[in-house]
Automatic annotation (TrEMBL), chain A:
Belongs to the binding-protein-dependent transport system permease family. One of its GO terms (cellular component) is plasma membrane. This is Sugar ABC transporter permease. InterPro entries: ABC_transporter_permease, MetI-like, MetI-like_sf. The lineage of its organism: Bacteria, Bacillati, Actinomycetota, Actinomycetes, Micrococcales. GO terms for biological process: transmembrane transport. It is found in: Cell membrane.
From TrEMBL, chain B:
It comes from Arthrobacter wenxiniae. SUPFAM superfamilies: MetI-like. The keyword Ligase does not apply. It is found in: Cell membrane. It is a multi-pass membrane protein. It holds the Pfam family BPD_transp_1. Coiled coil: none annotated. This is Carbohydrate ABC transporter permease. Gene3D superfamilies: MetI-like. The keyword Lipoprotein does not apply.
Length: 381, 297
């Protein structure tokens, strides 16, 4: 809204500036007081030596520059090691949960969206219900299901597998897998070097068995939400393009990859981004469940930040962890946006379709790749 | 002109497709159902186990963790929950917070959404951009900051501190703004020409028309504040102000070393799920569409 437009409409909308600010006032005040100001305060705390007593703005609190940050990123002490461990744990969580929940939710959406399906509402409800319940309730349930005498191990015992004591098992699943082949220690070039206080060999340990239970939970609880997004997107698809691909002889598998999926790109981006943002913020589950144990393998940056500030009174360090986490989330979101950006189709690839002039604003690139030579388009003869 | 053409071709296309698919259809449909039913069992089974276990005794819960029918029905877990824990207090606190937060969000979000959609005023663009920026701040970054401000303002460990910071959310403002932009403006203009003030128009004409969007806000904020945990961790410490999420979480991590008390914990988790579950089954259709609207906004 340009200033010009405001002036030209001032006849009927003359008094709206006052009401506009009055109407948005409460929201602005609340968001300002409980979001903007807190972030600025925490930013200050992350650069200070405040210990939790009195106001962080009192005279006794000093500016200490990047000390809190450098202790985490290059301190060489326990702080760096814990932070490295938490990043390792959370990174594995992200690497496994984001792709799996995206694939699963898309799979569920495609199944539920089948035209022949009866009882669609029932299936949709069943898959979505876990998303409605609170993370605390689900975690309590998970602690039982994955306990040493719990349901999961009972089911595993039916097929002759002795399940682990999930939430008390700190070994990384990739290390366990290598252990099956007799590899107990990593090669020297991996065990020698370290990053953030953790050896490269330990970075590659994979999520611990305990963390894997959380990973399964993450996929279980969020796939329903994202399924709804995919269903909505599937229902808005351009049916002409899909039917054209059918006529051209593309089978279901080809149609999905070459026609449907390219059209789902915006939703895919939304789901991946929301998943990525959510997965870097694992907190409730850890707080309710293992609180970082066993052997710190379920420690996440979010929980570490809370622990450092509220339990160990290291407020500057806790705030610093939160801001590093913030930067990580922003970085990955931008990176993902860049990877999934709309690529222009080259003119050479487009040429066979330009003359046909179907006029539908669909995806010529998708139809082109559907595996068939550009048959004389049956539609517009 | 294109209408007749497209119906014609649609007919031939469907014939083609039908001919090709007929043989595989039966088998494909059976496989589809088999897969869907298997998945549905995976998704529902945990909750059935949860309810069943809450009616089992401690030993039975450990011995037969997958049976859906207790050999001996007992309500010991539920009685223990009400007799020996603060469960009723937690429930009351969660209810108070949820009701206040939901009412607040309905009012403030629609007020701001209306201003952004309808009123022409200097600074609107800035406010809009600011809200977008605020929405992108990850919640977990706010744990420490929120505590700092609550402490500084002097409302730490009070209902005020629990409720007021949750009273508004940028996402809700966007949902309302999008809704207002989708309804025709003519009725309001008429009222305005008749001399009604801006708030009057909003309150007695616009709000009654916006029931669908308001329901969305109610559902989202009910679910959001009932399930909220981290805000209550950083805003309260006294047992009298503990909410369900915080209380059940302490129950879960509490008695380490002692008996596992799984029936009790699962009973607590099941009870705390009841209100959102009821909400879910009443407003199912709307909730399923809610997520769509929220993200599209």
């Amino acid at each position: 809204m340009s200033a010009n437009a405001v002036r030209s409409r001032s006849g009927i909308h003359g008094h709206e500036t006052a009401s506009g600010w009055l109407f948005t006032g409460p929201v602005l005040f609340l968001l300002g007081l409980f979001l903007v100001i807190p972030v600025l305060m925490a930013l200050w705390v992350s650069f200070s030596d405040w210990g939790g007593r009195g106001s962080p703005f009192s005279a006794g609190v000093h500016f200490i520059g990047f000390d809190n940050y450098s202790k985490l990123l290059a301190g060489g002490g326990l702080a760096e090691q814990d932070f490295g461990t938490s990043l390792r744990n959370n990174a594995w969580y992200v690497v496994l949960v984001v792709p799996l929940q995206t694939a699963l939710s898309l799979f569920l959406a495609v199944l539920v969206n089948r035209a022949v399906l009866r009882g669609r509402g029932f299936f949709r409800t069943a898959f979505y219900f876990p998303s409605v319940t609170s993370s605390v309730a689900i975690t309590v349930l998970w602690l039982f299901l994955f306990s040493s005498t719990g349901s999961v191990n009972k089911l595993l015992s039916y097929i002759g597998i002795t399940g682990p004591n999930w939430f008390n098992e700190p070994s990384g699943i990739l290390h366990d897998l290598l252990g099956v082949f007799g590899v107990q220690n990593g090669p020297a070039f991996l065990t020698g070097g370290t990053f953030l206080g953790i050896s490269w060999w330990d970075w590659l340990a994979g999520p611990s068995v305990a963390m894997s239970a959380y990973i399964i939970m993450g996929i279980f609880t969020t796939s329903g939400t994202f399924m709804l997004l995919f269903i909505a997107a599937l229902q808005n698809l351009d049916r002409d393009v899909t039917e054209a691909a059918m006529v051209d002889g593309a089978n279901g598998w080809q149609r999905f990859w070459q026609v449907t999926l390219p059209q789902l790109r915006p939703t895919l981006f939304t789901v991946l981004t929301l998943g990525l943002i959510g997965c870097w913020q694992v907190f409730d589950q850890i707080y309710t469940g293992t609180q970082g144990a066993p052997d710190k393998t379920t420690l996440t940056p979010a929980y570490l930040s809370y622990q450092a500030a509220f339990q160990d009174q290291g407020w500057g360090q806790g705030a610093a962890i939160a801001f590093i986490l913030f930067v990580i989330i922003v970085f990955f979101t931008l990176f993902q946006r860049w990877v999934l950006r709309e690529r222009k189709v080259s003119r050479r690839k487009m040429r066979p379709y330009l003359s046909v002039g179907t006029g539908s604003s669909g995806v010529p690139a998708g139809a082109a790749a559907a595996g068939q030579p550009p048959a004389p388009d049956g539609e517009r003869q | 002109m294109s209408i007749t053409q497209s119906t014609d071709t649609a007919g031939t296309k469907q014939d083609l497709v039908r001919r090709r698919d007929r043989n595989g259809t039966m088998a494909a449909t059976s496989v589809l159902y088999a897969v869907l039913i298997a998945l549905a069992i995976v998704y529902i089974f945990p909750f059935l186990v949860q309810v069943a276990t809450s009616f089992k005794s401690e030993t039975e819960a450990a011995q037969s963790p997958v049976s859906l029918v207790p050999q001996v029905w007992t309500t010991a877990a539920y009685r223990g929950l009400f007799a020996h824990s603060d469960f009723p207090v937690w429930f009351k606190n969660s209810a108070i917070v949820t009701v206040c937060v939901t009412l607040g969000r309905v009012f403030f979000d629609s007020l701001a959404g209306y201003a952004l959609a309808r009123l022409h005023f200097r600074g609107r663009g800035v406010i809009y951009a600011g809200l977008i920026a605020v929405m992108s701040v990850p919640g977990v970054v706010l744990l420490i900051p929120k505590f700092l401000v609550l402490n500084q303002v002097g409302i730490y460990d009070s209902y005020t501190g629990m409720i007021v910071p949750l009273l508004t959310d940028a996402a809700g403002v966007f949902i309302m703004k999008n809704f207002f932009e989708s309804v025709p403006i003519s009725v309001e203009e008429q009222a305005r020409i008749d001399g009604a003030g801006t708030f009057r128009v909003f309150w007695s004409i616009v709000l009654p028309m916006s029931r669908p969007a308001l329901m969305t806000i109610i559902i989202l904020s009910f679910q959001g504040s009932w399930n909220e945990l981290s805000h209550f961790i950083v805003s309260t410490q006294s047992p009298a102000l503990t909410t369900l999420t915080k209380g059940v979480a302490s129950l879960a991590s509490g008695q380490l070393g002692g008996p596992t008390q799984y029936p009790l914990k699962l009973a607590a988790a099941a009870l705390m799920t009841v209100p959102v579950a009821v909400m879910f089954f009443i407003f199912q259709r709307r909730i399923m569409n809610t997520t769509e609207g929220a993200v599209k906004g």
